[in-house]
Amino acid sequence: MRAATLPVFAALMALAVPATAQDREVPYWASIRASELNMRVGPSADYKIAWVYHRAGLPVRVLRVMEGWRLIEDPDGEKGWVVARLLSPDRTAIVTEGSPAAMRAAPDSSSEVKWRLEAGVTGALGECNSGWCELQLDDRSGWVEESRLWGDDGD
């Protein structure tokens, strides 16, 4: 009988790994995985929908973790609860309001400007240091001043 319980135990352990992997120290950064995501006023599908996102890749800050739900803050400062499985650990950043942000060839203000990014442009966030972050937009990449991005702790 002991040998029969081993596969059951192994299956239960495999199911526990994803839940454990989601337990991270808050706050942390994530991005929206789904093409549609409901933000609710509480951590359950029984709560009213406060906002619906239609933008996969949008960066969010996770403020609290509760049994498969995450309290997030979006780039506009809105806060609410979303289903954890619809968030991705992939780091992204969004260009903040103001004049177009220069995307440069190197992390230096005297470096060549490759593109100018309008507010609201979102891309994959690379490394950030000395006030600059590497940003990937499809087949384009470069460096943007960290102060022009939301999605990193230096903002």
Automatic annotation (TrEMBL):
The keyword Signal applies. Residues 1-21 form the signal peptide. Pfam families: SH3_4 (PF06347). Keywords: Signal. Residues 27-91 form the SH3b domain. This is SH3b domain-containing protein.
